[in-house]
Amino acid sequence: MTCHIDYQAPPGLLDGKIVLVSGASAGIGRAAAMSYARHGATVILLGRSISRLEGVYDAIEAMGAPQPAIFPLNLESATPQDYLAVAAKLEKEFGRLDGLLHNASILGDRVTVEDYDLALWARVMQVNFSATLGLTQALLPLLGCSTGASVIFTSSSVGRRGRANWGAYSTSKFATEGLMQILADEHQGSAIRFNSLNPGATRTSMRQSAYPDEDPQRLRTPEEIMPTYLWLMGPDSLGLSGQAFDAQPPKP
Ligand code: NDP
Predict the structure, then answer these.
(1) ipTM greater than cut 0.85
(2) CB 196 less than 6 A from any atom of ligand 1
(3) In what order do the strands lie in the sheet with 18-22?
(4) Using 50, 70 and 90 to split pLDDT, how confident is the model at 2?
(5) What family classification does the UniProt entry report for this protein (predicted)?
(6) Is the C-beta atom of 45 inside 6 A of ligand 1?
């Protein structure tokens, strides 16, 4: 697994590209949306909190980047009709999609499988995996209209090796890795590439919830891990598909 944290993106890396980011309202998704916009992309901000998405929208406009768009969608209650509606709106406004960052996720509980509430397990699978699957399926035709679309699935270290007390979250990330590999295999030779990206320990509210006793100042910020996000979204990663990447080097 490779990391590109030292990648230096040229300012116009994503000029003219249409990129959708799920969970764009906070944490890593917010940083990615801002970073993609700063590098020239028109970013579709998808998330459940309109007011928080509007904050990102305003920040993007304030830096003079291409005008973004807001697509409100709660992935916990989203249906196949909702995914098709997102695709129809994108088709009407842009006619294609060049990049898709699946970033939205919830943590769920940190208990053993034996103690895990199954209703919560299902909610975690819905937000972290089923919504990812549904959105991808609906957006494949539009991704196929791009000359070189990049689909990035956000993974986790516990999506690559199981760990005690990470139940639903870990399972959802394993499923996501599997989906990425299946899609890459099904689309061999096409212009769409599918890869996974593990951000690694990053200073966000999800990380704080998972590790409440940790000093967040010791962690990289979402902004600091953006080089790999840019590399994987932009043309320097063209031709790579079906691979698992890390946004940060492994801990020494
Ligand atoms: P945050 O909790 O900070 O942000 C999660 C984002 O997902 C928010 O924008 C949130 O929206 C959105 N979201 C959550 N539930 C829904 C929903 N039902 N519908 C729509 N959007 C939703 O998490 P991070 O930034 O830390 O995580 C980003 C990604 O990175 C996740 O996939 C996570 O699993 C992964 N990751 C993070 C690590 C870390 O150390 N931070 C380590 C490994 C992986 P809202 O603002 O409305 O809550």
Answers:
(1) yes
(2) no
(3) 69-72, 42-47, 18-22, 99-102, 150-154, 193-198, 244-246
(4) low
(5) Belongs to the short-chain dehydrogenases/reductases (SDR) family.
(6) no
CA atoms within 13 A on the CB side of 42: 13
Residue type present at position 216: P
Atom 11 of ligand 1, nearest CA residue: 23
Task: List, by residue number, the catalytic residues.
Answer: 169
In contact, 152 and 102? CB cutoff 8 Å: yes
- Structural domains in the chain plus CATH codes: 18-244 (3.40.50.720)
Q: Tell me what the pLDDT averaged over the chain comes to.
A: 97
Q: Give the span between the Cα atoms of 99 and 75, in whole angstroms.
A: 19
This prediction has a pTM of 0.98
| Dist CA 33 CA 73 (whole Å) | 16
Using H for helix, E for strand and C for coil, what is the string for 66-131? CCCEEEECCCCCCCHHHHHHHHHHHHHHCCCCCEEEECCCCCCCCCCCCCCCHHHHHHHHHHHHHH
- Beta-strand pair 18-22/99-102: parallel
Token digits for 2?
A: 């490779």
Tokens 């990425």 found at:
180
Is the pLDDT reported for residue 1 higher than 90? no
Give the type of residue at 243. Q
SS3 category, 152: strand
Q: What is the number of alpha carbons within 13 Å of residue 14 lying toward its C-beta? A: 32
**How far apart are the CA of 24 and the centre of ligand 1, in A?**
8
